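User: Thanks for the earlier help. One more: Polar amino acid transport system substrate-binding protein. Can you show the sequence and predicted structure together?

Assistant: Of course, both are below.
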Amino acid sequence: MPTATWSPAHTSRRGPRHRLAVLVSALACAVLAALTACAPEDSATGGQAGGTPTKSAKATGSATPTADGCAKSDLDLHTPGTLTVATDQPAYEPWFADDNPTSGKGFESAVAYAVARKLGFAASEVTWTRVRFNNAIQPGPKDFDFDINEFTITDQRKKAVDFSSSYYDATQAVVALKSAPIAKAKSVPDLKDAKLGAQVNTTSYDVINDVVQPSKQAQVFRSNDDARQALSNGSIDGLVVDLPTAFYMTAAQLENATIVGQLKQKSGTPEQFGLVLDKGSPLTACVTRAVDALRTDGTLDELAKTWLADVAGAPVLN
């Protein structure tokens, strides 16, 4: 089982290696100052989402600093020597298998370990922790290095957290019981009078209001499990989730259910899932670089084929 990794020592985002580096730098500066009027050193660290990696202050004290500051030894981690990765509980299929993110099975579990490898971490050096979806995207310090949980990258969320570059493009889909009136809907207007629901603070809920704009108030649920139960007992006519989740629900979790169709985003472009990091995290640029490398070398496509191979063929509702 994943374990929480918080301890008093974790209240600082800087590890012992950083503090030692600062001390060494300060002593060196003091000696040099006596000889050459050593100038103050800029201690600013970090990079922005998707930006060019910058060398951290920690790296300035490293015996072997790298040009991009993304070497394993240069990373400013929540827990020194360990890459702490978060996700929600339960963690749903097909993103994770059997609610066990440590297995490496399921698309997002596999992506997390692939990113870890790109950053130089063995699987044994990855620790998982559980964070509620809603809490992960709130402002404030995080107890993880990155969180992977189908987080759609949005401008609103970027005000509170950092995102890596996208590791998956997704669309939203409507799930209904085969007996429901909307099961045979062919267009978005056919959904206007339906009572639809989605998990709280998700883009699934936003799509209901922005794209469908139903005449009845959309229902919000704490989790997809709660929303699925509401669909089963007839409290709602349809449930909106991302397309891979819709396929899994209709195949394994709901009886006599069907995917009514995909919903196009209001912007016309698919949603993009990104890894969530602390706002201003010095890891953001390095994690983005790892995701970009996985996209370039074809790893992300291969993992999608392995774990999300069934997400083709759902009709698009216009």
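User: Great, one quick takeaway?

Assistant: The longest helix spans residues 16-36.
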